Amino acid sequence: MLGGINLNNEDIIIGIDFGTTNSAACIYKDEKFQIIPSAMGYDYFPSVVAVNENGELLVGHHAKKQMASNASNSVAEFKLKMGENETIKFNGEDKLPQEITSYVLGRIKRDAEAYLGKPINKAVISVPASFDNDARNATMEAGEIAGFEVEALVDEPTAACLTYSLTKNFLGNILVFDMGGGTLDIIIGAFDGSELVPKVTTGARFGGRNITMALRDYLQRDFEEQNGLKLEDYITPEYDPLIDLYNATEIAKIELSSTKTTNVHIDSIVMTDKGQRINLDKNVNRSDLNKLSDEVVKGSKEKVLEALKDAKLTKDDIDFLVFVGGPTKMPLIRESIEKLLGKSAAEGIDPMVCVAQGASIYKGGPITVGTINSLTLSVVINEKESDPLIPKNTPLPAEVTKEYHTMRDNQTSANIQIVEGESILAKENHTLHSFTLRGLPPRPKGEVAIQVKLKVDKNGIMGLSAKELSTNKKLSATFDSSNRMSSEEIKKAGLDNENLLSDYEEKIKQRNIINDAEEVIFEGKKLIENYSGHMLISDKNRVNENIEKLEGLLVIPKNFELIKLITKDLRNLIEKIESEDFYY
User: pLDDT band at residue 494, thresholds of 50, 70 and 90?
Assistant: First the structure.
């Protein structure tokens, strides 16, 4: 049992909201949600990874805490690079974004297993609705590297919509406005009491981070103008003032959601060549923040109107408005969207965890959930135009077959290219896959027919096949992005992930053992200092003996089990002596 939740031998599916700034996790058992806390007791995990000076992997809170002083060895916001060809330099190696992400997911897995007291092997991971096929594949790989069987991917706003549908029983049309650190997702779904049917989804690559950066840039310009310097000139391997300023700005942005004025103060953000320490100290008003947020607000409103148009609905057709994500706590964001729709947002569920909650009930939960395609999938024709096969917002799974014909006399091969995006021009869309069907019979233009079949599963993962109809010559493929990892690479990365996280946990245990030993040494010395004249000589000698043993072992700590044993003996001895009344 855990918090009223019965954890039997059934496989538990953990729902994970992998976020740009923070991540969260949840399980659902016995009709109850249970948020998984990090090992440090927080209900979220910062999406930050680092390596310290000893080469030890740091993940989450430990990594975020030292970012400014260890900037060159810290990585954040890697979610925004998922599915891209660009690698990330980490610990002296080039890593794909999914490899970095796996450290966060692996940390969540281990903390969840420690908290629940049983292995957690299955996961549903949320992704932005705007994630393309490459980014979704990369997310699946990250989960596999972390040791999960990824049961499904779920769009973040769909997961949030699911949470509200279950807990609030919202019958009708629900618009979810989900703004995270780096993405905005909007979904309009209909719930009838048993099934949640998404109607449209849309998204954009902006979010709370854009507002934080705008405020940071404002504070940076003000500071540099006042002091006649450039903060970039004071970045060193040991300290990055811009990261310190960003973190302080993030805190100020959050504070301005509940107060109209706050102060941003950083001691010694700059130390000049002459040893002069310069502090940053600036009062910021909510009105300043609102002005700097104008572009994000404008873009957000445009996306809401786009969703309504795609769904062929008016604002009056929306029965419930739901806000998700930290930035939606900002009064300006909330008020602008509420005013646009003429409706107050629903309350009662923490916007920071409702995506993780929804992910935990997506597979095998009490509500049936539909899925829709978030981007139009097209075949490229004339080498430049996109011919839509599966339009945006098509219910999934979907499969479409269409015939195309040769465009030149005696054409013996055909390049088949699939793109995703909304432009008629192929070059403005994202290329998913391209292959060549060879050995076509040499005939006049238009006489050779090629049948193309495109299918998309419920996770948004796609497959393609093509055949020339007169010869039945076939070619097929699952969409592999150029940075897709092989099964061998995933297995190797998984072992590396396991080893690094295991080593990290072992180092944490060792540090805790050393800290306990140092603490009990201090207590023993204090006891002798204060009550030496009242203690039995035998007790005093035993305390000193154990202190000397511990101090000797701590010079180069190796035998941690012995340190733990002597620490326990010394603590028991001190407690026994303190419980006696001989010194009163």
Answer: low
Which amino acid type is present at position 438?
Answer: R
Q: How far apart are CA 175 and CA 202, in angstroms?
A: 11
What would the DSSP string read from start to end of 14-62? Answer: EEEE--SSEEEEEEEETTEEEEPPPTTS-SSEE-EEEE-TTS-EEETHH
| Residue reference for tokens 């509940």 | 258
Domains recognised in the chain with CATH numbers: 13-208+296-369 (3.30.420.40), 373-478 (2.60.34.10), 487-579 (1.20.1270)
Distances (CA, A) of 306 to 42, 208, 318, 376: 37, 20, 14, 15
Instruction: Look up tokens 């910062």; give the residue.
Output: 46
- The mean pLDDT of 515-521, rounded to a whole number, is 86
Percent of the chain with pLDDT over 90: 33
Decide if pLDDT at 582 tops 60: no
What backbone torsions phi and psi does residue 196 show, to the nearest 5 degrees? -105, 120
CA separation for the pair 449, 451 (Å, rounded): 7
Which one, of 303, 286, 93, lies nearest residue 201 by Cα? Answer: 303
The side-by-side arrangement of strands in the sheet containing 473-478 is 398-405, 449-456, 462-468, 473-478
Helix (H/G/I), strand (E/B), else coil: 367: coil
Element housing 244 (H / E): helix 241-255
Which pLDDT band, with edges at 50, 70 and 90, does 484 fall under? low
pLDDT score at 90: 86
Tell how far CA 533 is from the center of its chain.
59
Distances (CA, A) of 179 to 76, 143, 192, 210, 583: 18, 23, 26, 11, 63
In whole angstroms, give the CA distance from residue 82 to residue 508: 30
188/201 Cα distance (integer angstroms): 7
Rounded CA separation 293/371 (Å) = 32
Which residue from 434, 436, 467, 435 is spatially nearest to 450, judged by alpha carbons?
467
The chain-wide mean pLDDT, for the chain, equals: 85
Judging by beta carbons within 10 Å of its beta carbon (0-12, 13-18, 19+), is residue 529 exposed, middle or buried? Answer: exposed
Banded pLDDT at 385 (limits 50, 70, 90):
confident
Q: What is the pLDDT of residue 584?
A: 42
